[in-house]
Amino acid sequence: MECIGIVPVLVIDRVEDARPVADALAGAGCRVLEITLRTEAALDAIAVLAEHPSLTVGAGTVLSAEQASEACAAGAAFLVAPGFDKATVEFARSAAVPIVPGIATASELQAAWNFGLEFVKVFPASTIGGPAALRMLASICAGMRFMPTGGIGIDDLADYLAIPAVLACGGTWLASASAIAERDFDGIASRAATAVAIARQARNSR
Q: Is 183 helix (H, G, I), strand (E, B) or coil?
C-alpha cells in the first residue's frame, strides 16, 4: 500500500464486472483493491479477483467476525472495517490476516493503539476535518499509520498523502458505482493513472 498510496474501494453489484474493473485499475498501477461487503456479489467477486496474478484483494465494510471469516474463506488477503470491533480484530489475528479497522476520534485511536494496532483507517476523513484533522490525530500515537477514506478525491489526494503517517488513501471515486454500471473501464483507468501519478509525486516530495 505504501508504495502505491492508492486503494480503490469497489462496490460490485455484478460478479462479471469484477475482472474488467480490476484489469483497468491494475493496468493503471493500482494493484491493491478493496471490495466492500455491501452487495450480494461481493464475496464471489473477491473469490474471482483473489486469483488475479497482479492484484492483492481485500474485503471492506467488514462489520463482524462472521463476515471476516466469510471474506477470508473467499480469498481476501486483508480486511478493512469502518469501525473498531475487538471480536473482528481478534478473529483476524487468529487467522493471521491483516486488518485495518476504522477510527474517527482520538478516543477510538487510543483504543486501537492500546489494542496493539499499528495501522488504522480514518473514516469519514473529509467530514471529520480532512488533512488538518488527520495531522492532529497522527501526532497522538507515534508509529501509528493511517489510511484515510471517505470524501477524498483528485483535488485533495496530495494533501493527505503529504502526511508522513499516511500509507495510502482509499475511496470509491476511482471506480464509482455509476462508472462500473456503465462499464466505463477507460474512464476508470484514466482516473486511476492520474491518482497514481499524484501519489508518486506526493511520496517523492516528502
A: coil
